[in-house]
Structure formats: C-alpha cells, structure tokens
Amino acid sequence: MTKTLAEARAYAAGLVAALDGRDLAGLQPFIIPPFTALTPVADVLVAEPRILLGAQNAHWEDAGAWTGEVSVPQVADAGARLVEIGHSERREHFAETIETTGLKVRAALRHGLHALLCIGEPAEVKDAGDSTAYILAQARGALGGLTAGELANVVIAYEPVWAIGEHGRPATAAELAGPFAALAAEYGGRAAGVLYGGSVHQGNAAELLTIAGVEGLFVGRAAWQLEGYLELLEIAQGAAIRA
C-alpha cells in the first residue's frame, strides 16, 4: 500500500528509461503496484513491454456481489499480466486459505494471466522443523490438478513469514537449502519460475541467487525506490550471466 498515482507513474517512467535499449538477457523484470495505479503504470509500460505488470490480488469470481473485491478480468482490463496470490499478509489478515489461493490461481490462468503464488511458513513452524512440509502443502493445495501447460504459467515465490517485512530476519543459505531443494524437485523446470522473497536487499541478493533452486527474487521494500530496484536488476543479471 505505497505510492500515489504520480509516484507510480514516475517510478514506471524511470524504469522504462533505464531499460531502454538494454539487453535483458537472463532477466524478467516485473512490478506490482496498487490497484489504483495499474492503468496509469500500464500506459507508461507500453513503451517497454518486456516489463510484466502485476496486480497484488484478485478475486476468483469473474463478477458478482463481492463488494470491495477486484476480479481477474478487471485487473487484466487495467493492464495486468500477472496476479500475485496468497501473500502472507493476505493469509494472516484477510483469511486467505489454500482453497481460495487455488481458486485464484485457476481464475488467473483461465483469463490468460500468469499466477504468482506466494507460500511461506511462520516462525513456529520453522522452529518445529516442519518448513518443507508446510510450504509443499500450500503449493500442492493451490496447484494440484493443473496441466503441464497451466503450471508453466505459474511463478512460485517462497517467502518465509519470519523473514519478511520491516521486522523480518534475513534467512541464511543453510535455512533455505532444504525448502528450495524440495521446491526444485517438485516444480523445477515445470513452473515458470521459483523465486525467493524475504528481507532481500542489495547486500544479500547475489548470495541468495547462488542457492540451488532459487531462480529469481521477489523483492519488497528494497525495491520501493527505483534506484534500489535497478541495482537489484544489475545483481540478478550478473548472477544469470555467471550461471
């Protein structure tokens, strides 16, 4: 819940200018502004269609008596090509469940958009040693039954709840090795990508991208300012080239 219309337009315009004529080999940039800014940002991104525009949420029904909700056809009409689904804040504060995330994934795919499914365990699950089982249950519950073609349009973002937000603790490579090995075994080469998010910043991005199974980064506050996002893109492209 950041950025006014003017701020969002300025961010998008700066991003387009910075990427103009640049080889994006190894990169797939995307930004996910608030609903209010989708169309203005989409208008700016016409000049740089390589940047995917996403919506932070969408309902599973195409229309109806769902006051306050926004549908997949509506976000697509506003310019989105990707829908973020199941962020931990949505699960904690707005009662998102494995069932509803599955419905939303199918709604996004039904309308030709990419689904970005967020999964992640709270601290008490991690402390009990159940991280891998927990996140696989979230992923399997939302993605079970998809065809190979449908799964190829799903991006999975693993965001441990204990690692995200203002008070999150950055995860270590050792803590991420097991979950990403499991995700790679189940979804590697099948999903469009498996990303890591959680206290990602310019100081740890390069190391995170060396972890087996991590195919990209899902960044929050470190990318709120354009300069930060551009620096992270440089780090990610450097990692892709070295790989």
What is the third-level CATH name, the topology? TIM Barrel
CATH architecture: Alpha-Beta Barrel
Averaged pLDDT, please? 97
Percent of residues in helices: 40-55%
Question: Percent of residues in beta strands?
Answer: 5-15%
- Number of individual domains: 1
CATH level-1 class: Alpha Beta
Q: How many DSSP-defined strands?
A: 7
Number of helices: 11
The N- to C-terminal Cα distance equals 35 Å
Largest sheet: 7 strands, parallel
Structural class: alpha/beta
Biggest sheet: strands side by side, in what order?
A: 1-2-3-4-5-6-7
* CATH homologous superfamily assignment: Aldolase class I
- The gross shape turns out to be globular
Low-confidence stretches: none
SSE pattern, N- to C-terminal? HEHEHEHHEHHHEHEHEH
Q: What quaternary form is this?
A: single chain
Q: What's the gyration radius in Å?
A: 17 Å
Subcellular location: Cytoplasm
Catalytic activity: D-glyceraldehyde 3-phosphate = dihydroxyacetone phosphate
Organism: Georgenia thermotolerans
Subunit structure: Homodimer.
How is this structure best described in words?
Pathway: Carbohydrate degradation; glycolysis; D-glyceraldehyde 3-phosphate from glycerone phosphate: step 1/1; Carbohydrate biosynthesis; gluconeogenesis. GO terms for molecular function: triose-phosphate isomerase activity. This is Triosephosphate isomerase. The protein contains eleven helices and seven strands. Helix 3 (72-77) links the parallel strand 2 (52-55) and strand 3. Helix 1 (5-19) packs parallel to helix 2 (38-45), helix 5 crosses helix 7 (131-143) and helix 7 runs parallel beside helix 9 (173-187). The chain has a single domain (54-224), classed as Alpha-Beta Barrel (TIM Barrel), CATH 3.20.20. The mean pLDDT is 97. The protein is globular, with a radius of gyration of 17 Å. It is α/β, with parallel strands linked by helices. It has helices at 5-19, 38-45, 72-77, 88-93, 98-110, 123-127, 131-143, 148-151, 173-187, 205-208, 226-242; strands at residues 30-31, 52-55, 82-85, 114-119, 154-158, 193-196, 216-217.
